[in-house]
Design a protein that fits this description.
Length: about 475
Amino acid sequence: MEATGTDDVDKLKTKFISAWNNMKYSWVLKTKTYFSRNSPVLLLGKCYHFKYEDEDELLPARSGCTIEDHVIAGNVEEFRKDFISRIWLTYREEFPQIEGSALTTDCGWGCTLRTGQMLLAQGLILHFLGRAWTWPDALNIENSESESWTSNTVKKFTTSFEASLSGERELKTPTVSLKEKIERYSDEMQNEIYHRKIISWFGDSPLALFGLHQLIEYGKKSGKKAGDWYGPAVVAHILRKAVEEARHPDLKGITIYVAQDCTEMLSTEQIYSSDVIDKQCTSMASDNTNDKAVIILVPVRLGGERTNADYLDFVKGILSLEYCVGIIGGKPKQSYYFAGFQDDSLIYMDPHYCQSFVDVSIKDFPLETFHCPSPKKMSFRKMDPSCTVGFYCRNVQDFKRASEEITKMLKISSKEKYPLFTFVNGHSRDYDFTSTTTSEEDLFSEDEKKRIKRFSTEEFVLL
């Protein structure tokens, strides 16, 4: 009876804390984000220029951002569509209970897991859809109806098709063949299938491959549990294991590599090129000779207790690369997913917004809550020094080209400082990529356990 009473008290305490966090994080102040018209905006390797054209025009109210109180005709809509198309993963409530706890929400403790999910989601977007892909309904997200994107697309295509058959189009409109229409529609539908599939992999249920429940299970094997805070370095290793253990045919062609320390004294990370290439060339199917794509995660520190301003060029350089899939970082007590910058301000997506659970197993589940309607900005000076940067390379050739470009960028941004990470030819001493065991003892190598322990003492507490 005593044990049962204690369990009831723990459950009641957990529910009270969850209710408090739900109330705390469900109230989000909708503030405008200001962008300068005089400086370019970089978003995950893409550059946008906002040029002032008409002083009398007003920026659309639904855009959620203001550019010096003027409409900048240039690339504003293109930038907004690109940003909104990134997958946004936030706190959720009322999802299935996490095993071993009474938690049905991650409000107040899961923000780094969410930013890690966002980085991985961007890597999967690049892998399956490419960097040029954008969600067709991105600019309509705030005016979305209950109908699914798929049904809307079908209606638009049908209307267009019927109009072309009945000759209702104006003669000056360029004609498009039926074959081209069908091919275009087929491509859009295929992209939508992958768009939904990627989001479903991050659903808040025990079966979702990269959902919170699965990530927490892998976290347990490194000493973490639901309700604990997770640092960017720990999340990097959890993501690696989650991808390695994912048993889905579409994911056989992608893997994750996490950079390693070169010494105990220095925080410089090393990417062993031969190890990366080995991972890319190791195929689960003996008849598959194609290279694997790889997401490279590099945990770094940008200073001591505070971020060193000298590393601003490094962060800008990372976010300017076409290979970049973002940065798991934040400011003290909060984790953000950094995806771009303008001048000395970082552009990010914020997971600290509590939304209701969405059952992604339902056909045509709503997509709107998985896309952020407006960007946020933060001064680089407020950035916490602990972070993990990510890159995506489609094949071995792409990795070799990326390593050369990233090395050049590191030399330029490091100036007189020692680089935060380096590419090293050859193999590391004890990294084994052929092991597929999932036991607690073998989940992380001894080197990784030391790294995680060291980073855990340095990283900020995320609330």
